Amino acid sequence: MRPSVVLLRKRARIQQIVHTCPGTVNEEEQDAEVARIAAQPFARYTPDEKHLEALRERSDWNDPMRKFEEEQREAEGGAAGPGAGAAAARPPRPKCPHAPWPNRFNIPPGYRWDGKVRGSDFEKRWLQAKNGRELKKAEAYRWEQEMDQNS
Fold first, then answer.
1. What is the pTM of this model?
2. How many CB atoms lie within 10 A of CB 80?
3. Fewer Cβ in 10 A, N or C end of the chain?
4. Span between the terminal Cα atoms of the chain, in Å
5. How wide is the angle at C-alpha 84 spanned by C-alphas 79 and 86, nearest 5°?
6. Of 86 and 46, more confident
7. CA 135, 141, 143 angle in degrees (round to 5)?
8. Can you tell me the mean pLDDT for 77-85?
9. Where are the alpha helices (DSSP H) in the chain?
């Protein structure tokens, strides 16, 4: 059985579309890249320039210098990557209008808090005990210094 002319034309058209679509790698480019990598020795002591450039372009989420680099790119006028405009367009987070009560971890209250503390006053007693201990230490130290000066 011989494939029909229409079927052959469809296959040729599909191949043409696949090879010309943006985002696809041409077979020649892919073969050239494979040949370039295959020509390198197996044990590489220094990475090649193309590999180093690819590493520089990659952005990891846990990179400590990422924020600095994004700020540099924004200062130069370039985009900082995907979603760069979303952070600038985000409105500021609302803050609670009431003064926060002191707590061990300095956690600010949520913006919907109505100002009434509904706890068991554990934090208050804990902070009072802590401050009492520190005050007692400071008073004992002052008393010792006073006694040393008198003798």
1. 0.33
2. 20
3. N
4. 120
5. 145
6. 46
7. 100
8. 57
9. 5-20, 27-39, 49-57, 66-76, 84-89, 122-150
